[in-house]
Amino acid sequence: MKVILVVDDDATNLRTLGELLRPEYRVRLASSGEDALRIAGSDPRPDLILLDVMMPVMDGYEVLRRLQADEATRTIPVVFVTALHDEDSEQRGFELGAADFIHKPIRAAVALSRIRAQIDARTARESLRRKAQHMARVAEQGAEQLENTRQQLLQSEKMASIGQLSAGIAHEINNPVGFVASNLAALGRYLDDLFSIIDACAAESGAPAEQRLAEVRGLMQRLEYDYLKEDVLDLLAESKEGVERVRQIVADMKGFSHAGASGWQWADLHGGLDSTLNIARSTFKHHCTLVKRYGELPQIHCIPSQLNQVFMNLVVNAAQAIEGSGEITVTTGRVGDDSVQVSIADTGKGISPEGLRRLFEPFYTTKPVGEGTGLGLTLSREIVQRHRGQIEVNSELGKGTVFTLTLPIDPVLDIDADTEPPAAAV
Ligand SMILES: Nc1ncnc2c1ncn2[C@@H]1O[C@H](COP(=O)(O)OP(=O)(O)O)[C@@H](O)[C@H]1O
Ligand SMILES: [Mg+2]
């Protein structure tokens, strides 16, 4: 049942109104402005207040002003009940925020229908407010979910590019591991031969020395000792180089992912570029020539693993854009006092005007499933923006494409002097 607070300094008026309302509403009564304020702020909260204008000590206008100043009572609609018939006081009441006016003497039907209208309006408003609150919560949750999904997408792009590369990397590692293994087997056989020669030298036999020497020499000849001596050294040298290659690949993979050091730091971009190019080598080594035009680069304040991710995207895109054979050129240099530039150019098929428009859109890809996710450049641009840098593209159909990154040496200097760079989210 809805609650109505009736405020009037005249006991007869209170009684009349109370009797009129009681069949439909729960009625609370106040005989002064002070009482009214106390009751309005306590439970059960009124859904409507019928307020007498002319009261001693505190008149209705003042009560309304105070109700509206209080967070707890501000939304309760107030209907003035007044004997006054002048329009000025109505005007003033409405300006203060009164919901309506009922004039004394009270005519039951008119008063009740006006009261009902106010109560209904309030109920509708409350339900709207609750719905709006609910929608706001839903929207907030939606935004949060969207952000989560976006983070997952970026992460999966990373995984996809690592997945694509892993076959090539496995091959790069398998190759030396394969020949080191076969060299070890050959070395084992050579050792057997060597042991049998040594055993022959040391064998107890009654034969004269010359005869034994001849026997040993015969054995050495049969076992091709001279060739064995040379080949053992070759096999060892080759195996050493194979192991070194594996070590280098592992070091590059570490350099690429920058395992262990993922935050903002001062770093040399050439190191990251070299690691990344080595890791990506399998994507271009068969059909592209790699040209490095490295200039002078100061260390820059960055998140190296993320920039490596950008280099990787650009290099793999360049390699995939080259059909037949072509060239990938990586150029670096300083621009002005506080920026550096890295550009990755290819002599590939170029990008169409539509492609240029949509390049950085999430999921825009012209590649078959498994080869492209369409997130590489989206992610790259995000990382570059996080570094307060720029990524630009120049492309000519059939001729090739150049992606140029411009990065500030210290992004912090570009923001407010003492704010940290934005946190690394990816
Ligand atoms: N160097 C490039 N040459 C030609 N087209 C490119 C090059 N880089 C990117 N593109 C085009 O932009 C699209 C989006 O690239 P990207 O965001 O890295 O996604 P993905 O490589 O997974 O397709 C590619 O599918 C390709 O059509
Ligand atoms: Mg890509």
Automatic annotation (TrEMBL):
Q: Which InterPro entries match?
A: CheY-like_superfamily, HATPase_C_sf, HATPase_dom, His_kinase_dom, Sig_transdc_His_kin-like_C, Sig_transdc_resp-reg_receiver
What positions belong to coiled-coil segments? 129-156
Enzyme Commission identifier(s): 2.7.13.3
User: Which PROSITE patterns does UniProt cross-reference here?
Assistant: HIS_KIN, RESPONSE_REGULATORY
Q: What class of enzyme is it?
A: transferase
A molecular function (GO) held by this record is:
protein histidine kinase activity
Q: Which UniProt keywords apply?
A: Coiled coil, Kinase, Phosphoprotein, Transferase
Gene Ontology BP annotations:
phosphorelay signal transduction system
Q: What's the domain of life for this entry?
A: Bacteria
Asked if the record carries the keyword Kinase, the reply is yes
Q: Which residues form the Histidine kinase domain?
A: 168-411
Q: Which residue positions does 4-aspartylphosphate occur at?
A: D52
KW Transferase (keyword) present: yes
Protein name as it appears in the record: histidine kinase
